[in-house]
Specification:
The chain folds into four domains: 115 residues, 3-Layer(aba) Sandwich (Rossmann fold); 173 residues, 3-Layer(aba) Sandwich (Rossmann fold); 72 residues, Helicase, Ruva Protein, domain 3, CATH 1.10.8; 75 residues, no CATH class. The two termini are 26 Å apart. Strand 9 and strand 10 form a beta hairpin. By secondary structure, it is of the alpha/beta class. The chain is elongated. The protein is built from 21 helices and 14 strands. Helix 5 packs across helix 13, helix 6 crosses helix 7 and helix 13 packs across helix 15.
Length: 496
């Protein structure tokens, strides 16, 4: 799903040009012809979908400065690029102080606008990720930070918020990669233990001979190699939350000691003379069938019922496909910014393919898949060709990149480049009538050279998606010459 940019300009022609330039970079657009209409949109149902605003400063009624002043209290993080025909330093300073992220003087080239959009979205994405990481590190992540709008997630979110209001032990169940730890952090972030320690223990990744020491601690000299006192995870989590991930992997002998620690609210460090009291909120997680493990004698029944006081099941990604589009947009935006790539969206065909896949590795697999695609991608959007591993597992999707079919425009040299521009353009137009440039009018008469020239420039701008440097190179003229001809001919071209 492509990011959406709101274009606000009272000039219909300028608004349409901006809209087309934005679309060519792979973004979706919404438009507003006044500041008042823009604020109505930002206060409506589409506000959550808007990733950026391109705002004209000079408009009748509510102007751009007034929009900025009204917008910032409601949407402080929304990036805004302001446009004006008057680029005085005072205007720039005023706009920036009002909350603009960038300032562009009209007439703006597609290349300049492209860079401005890319940089603003990159900064926003990285800032959002930094804020998320800060909230995570500070133990203040909440359920509002989780992408979970699918109906199948409704019950899990409801139970999670209920659990956050008490100190009850929680067992989070779900397949690997569904986000059980993120869910556990959200429980803490909405509880009265927010901001306190959140200590994670992966029970399946600890060597058996070290589990007791890691969980409960040890005294100096308690065993060979114990050169320093170690507090243990229970003590580290004192006052906060202890998250025991993959609890089903815990050995039976340690299950007994864990049960006692939970029941008594104290731990016995190895080599200690007396137990240590701890105050923790316990959250466990597993991707295994715990009931079956209990039946087979692999997990203590008394410990299971002690942990499973408040069970919460997180559905797999294949059962919450409504969230897939937003998850993809989130990962594309963040990872593209991190990698410095100008990638704004995923093609419609590629999204259909991603929706058709079952995602056995769930959200973690989706993130890693998007990451790989972004690293390998060359275009402005991710296509089926960027997901060969997914396409190979589905029928009807071919990841083979299509062979280039375009015929390059001739590059003019020598006299043709310097003095024979009109003649060369006409010759090219006559040889490329099938591409949309005709030298004959409807009556069969030769068209004016000026009109053919104008059509050819339009064709080139369309063909190379408004990248004026490439257009000028293909036509064999300088950029300044191209811009002058666009202006002198009065061309109403998209992208300029």
């Amino acid at each position: 799903m492509a990011q959406t940019i709101l274009v606000v300009d009272d000039d219909p022609a300028q608004r349409r040009i901006l809209e087309e330039v934005v679309k060519r970079d792979g973004y979706r657009t919404l438009t507003a012809e006044s500041g008042t209409e823009a604020m109505e949109i930002m206060g409506g149902i589409h506000a959550k979908d808007i990733s950026m605003m391109i705002l004209d400063l000079v408009m009748p009624g509510m102007d751009g400065m007034e929009v900025l002043e009204a917008l910032r209290p409601q949407h402080p993080a929304l990036p805004v690029i302001v446009l004006t025909a008057h680029g005085g330093i005072e205007t720039v300073v005023k706009a920036m102080r009002a909350g603009a992220d960038d300032f562009v003087v009209k007439p703006v080239s597609p290349e300049r606008l492209h860079v401005s959009i890319r940089n603003a979205l990159k900064v926003t994405a990285l800032t959002g990720e930094i804020n998320r990481l800060q909230k995570k590190a500070q133990g203040q992540l909440t359920f509002d930070d989780i992408i979970a709008g699918a109906p199948s997630m409704g019950n899990a979110l409801k139970l999670g918020r209920r659990a956050a209001q008490s100190n009850i032990p929680v067992l989070i169940e779900g397949e690997s990669g569904v986000g059980k730890e993120v869910f556990a952090r959200a429980i803490q972030g909405e509880s009265d233990r927010a901001g306190r320690p959140f200590v994670t223990v992966n029970c399946g990744a600890i060597p058996e001979n070290l589990i007791e020491s890691i969980l409960f601690g040890h005294e100096k000299g308690a065993f060979t190699g114990a050169s320093e006192k170690h507090a243990g995870k229970f003590v580290e989590a004192n006052g906060g939350t202890l998250f025991l991930d993959e609890i089903g992997e815990l050995p039976l002998d340690m299950q007994v000691k864990l049960l006692r620690a939970i029941q008594e609210g104290e731990v016995d460090p190895i080599g200690a003379k007396k137990p240590v009291k701890v105050d923790i909120r316990l959250i466990s997680a597993t991707n295994r069938d715990m009931i079956e493990m209990v039946k087979q004698g692999h997990f203590r029944e008394d410990l299971y019922y002690r942990l499973n006081v408040f069970p919460i099941n997180i559905p797999p990604l294949r059962e919450r496909r409504e969230d897939l589009g937003e998850l993809v947009s989130h990962f594309v935006s963040r990872l593209a910014a991190e990698e410095g790539k100008n990638i704004a969206a995923v093609s419609q065909d590629a999204m259909q393919m991603l929706n058709a896949y079952d995602w056995p590795g769930n959200v973690r697999q989706l993130e890693n898949t998007i990451f790989r695609a972004i690293v390998l991608a060359d275009g402005a959007e991710l296509t089926i060709a960027d997901f060969p591993q997914i396409a190979s597992q589905l029928d009807g999707f071919d990841a083979t990149p299509p062979a280039p079919a375009e015929t390059p425009m001739p590059v003019m040299q020598g006299a043709a480049a310097s003095g024979g521009f009109r003649q060369t353009l006409t010759d090219f137009a006559m040889s490329n009538i099938s591409d949309g440039v005709s030298v004959m009018d409807e009556q069969g008469n030769m068209r004016r050279l000026e009109d053919v020239e104008a059509d050819l420039i339009r064709l080139a701008i369309d063909k190379y998606k408004g990248h004026m440097s490439e257009v000028a190179r293909r036509l064999g003229i300088g950029r300044s010459t191209l811009y002058r001809k666009v202006r002198d001919l009065g061309l109403d071209v998209r992208g300029e």
